[in-house]
Amino acid sequence: MSPMSNERPDPAPVSPPSHTSGGWSLSALFIGVAVTLVMTVYPFAAVKAGGAPDMLAAGLLFWAMSAGFVRGLGFIPRLLIPRLLLSLPASLIALAVAIWRLASN
């Protein structure tokens, strides 16, 4: 390249930030798939002893399912609060609280 040339070298390729893709998490994905299958095949799993739906337990189960799918497929949100709410520990906690709530009815 001559000093009079207007050509610039190609810039280095920009890689995405490392925190947006963390790779697959099979344990989180298992939680998502398991909750999906249980709630699809047997939706009465989120019902109180009297037959009324337990809305809080259902919400916790679906939170665990959503967090399991999000983290299990390797997506990690950039913002702190969604990253915490959609993490594997959040999925495990939501699942444990839902199971505890349904077992105590």
Question: Helices, strands, pairings?
Answer:
Blueprint: H1 26-41, H2 55-72, H3 80-85, H4 88-103
Helix pairs in contact: 1-2, 2-4
Q: What's this, in brief?
A:
With 105 residues, this protein is an all-alpha fold. Helices cover 53% and strands 0% of the residues. It has four helices and no strands.
Name a few traits of the molecule:
elongated, 53% helix, 105 residues, mainly alpha
Proportion of β residues?
under 5%
Helix content range of the residues, please?
40-55%
Overall residue-averaged pLDDT value = 88
Q: How many whole angstroms does the radius of gyration measure? A: 22 Å
Report the end-to-end length measured between terminal Cα atoms: 78 Å
What is the β-strand count? 0
Give an account of the 3D structure:
- Helix content is 53%, strand content 0%.
- The protein is mainly α and 105 residues long.
- It has a domain at 31-103.
- Helix 1 (26-41) runs antiparallel to helix 2 (55-72).
- It is elongated and about 85 Å long.
- The mean pLDDT is 88.
